[in-house]
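Please, does this match?
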Amino acid sequence: MKKIFIFIFCLSLLVSAYAQSDQSQPKSKSDQTEFKTVFGPGKNKTKVPLGYFFEINAAYTMLGSNSVFLPGISVGVILNHHWTIGLSGSVLGNPNGLRYDSIYTDTVGQPKKGACLNGIYGGLLLEYTLLPNSVVHVSFPLMIDMGYFFFRNPGKYNHSSNSNWEGDRNNHTIADTYCFIIEPGIRAEFNLVRMFRMGITISYRYSPNFSIQGVSQYELNQFNAKLSFRLGKF
């Protein structure tokens, strides 16, 4: 995990250095308006400085000692080729959720049972892109989200006269919580073709009010490594 973050951090520094070097070189008027790509010839920018995009992404992070897969999507509009405003969302993608032991008691006096944590969060996406015409460039995304997390009962328990439940339960929500999340980051982005970009992002997810029984309030505060693909008009 640490090696992944170190690699992405070093990559971001290299891209930033490349962008500064590229910016310091004298450019003709045509160079300044040409959109450079990895594959195919460059193309002049559109005259109307308004674009849009649709993104699919996949991130790797940790919640406590659990490895977590975070698939997500984003959509937005691009103003003057540099500023982005949109919506973004992610979901805990582990097939059976994250297993935690001793979360609740299904019957009075019985040992506590385990449950699986699931969740989703999303909200506003703000972003600034430096030198968007370059083949490789840097952007600075900021996500301001609301999250919903819940424990579910993964199995059935028999009903008895002293049960806390009204009958057999399967996938029953044991506890849930809403929380505020803010996630700043830095992304190295590649113009593959005129309408398609790939990005590698490192970000930090912070929630000041995450609270649910059986889980530390700090477990949601973690680094993320994300791979993203954007299709749109840039």
Observations:
- The CA atoms of residues 196 and 231 lie 5 Å apart.
